Amino acid sequence: MVTTFLKSGIKITPQRVAVFEALESLCHASADEVISKVQEKAPYISPATIYNTLDKFVQMGVISRVATDGNKMFFDITPTPHVHLCADDNSFIADAHIPELEQLIADYLPRVQIPGFHLSKIQVNLVGRFEGNTQEK
Ligand SMILES: [Zn+2]
């Protein structure tokens, strides 16, 4: 974590460490879930500080933001592009680990010219229904 902060130029503060560690333990989480997790250990950190810290982390490329079909926003401890599996009721999101698909997208899309459009980010969400364990996010 310290290395991540140093690489991104983010100053290390106790609040930022608490927010990062909370999201690290959750992997993918809504802002409210991060707030609950942070406040379990540090109730003095305000929701506004946690929201601002999450936004700062996204701006600095330390974490990423994932929008699902139902407009639910998740924060993701993994900042690099990767494929997500999203529950069709928007309750759950997980990393898919399909390197072939990620490589296919990374190889193909930069070669495609779409007039008037400049690709800045690739986000692939596969939406469906999970069976079995849905505790991992
Ligand atoms: Zn992810």
In N-to-C order, the SSE pattern is HHEHHEEEEHE
- What is the arithmetic mean of pLDDT? 88
Task: Give a short account of the largest sheet.
Answer: 3 strands, antiparallel
Assign a percent range to the helix content.
25-40%
State the strand order across the main sheet.
1-3-2
The first-level CATH class is given as: Mainly Alpha
Regarding quaternary structure, what we see is: single chain
Based on CA inertia axes, which overall geometry fits?
A: globular
Q: Which spans have pLDDT < 50 for at least 5 consecutive residues? A: none
Structure description:
The protein has a single domain (2-128), classed as Winged helix-like DNA-binding domain superfamily/Winged helix DNA-binding domain (Arc Repressor Mutant, subunit A), CATH 1.10.10. The chain contains 5 helices and 6 strands, in the order H-H-E-H-H-E-E-E-E-H-E. The protein has helices at 2-8, 14-26, 31-41, 47-59, 99-108, and strands spanning 28-29, 64-67, 73-76, 83-87, 93-95, 124-128. Strands 1-3-2 form a 3-stranded antiparallel sheet. A 3-stranded mixed sheet has the order 5-4-6, with no helix packed on it. Helix 2 packs across helix 3 (31-41), helix 2 crosses helix 4 and helix 3 packs across helix 4 (47-59). The protein starts with a helix and ends in a 9-residue tail after the last strand. Zinc ion (ZN) is lined by residues 28, 76, 78, 82, 84, 95.
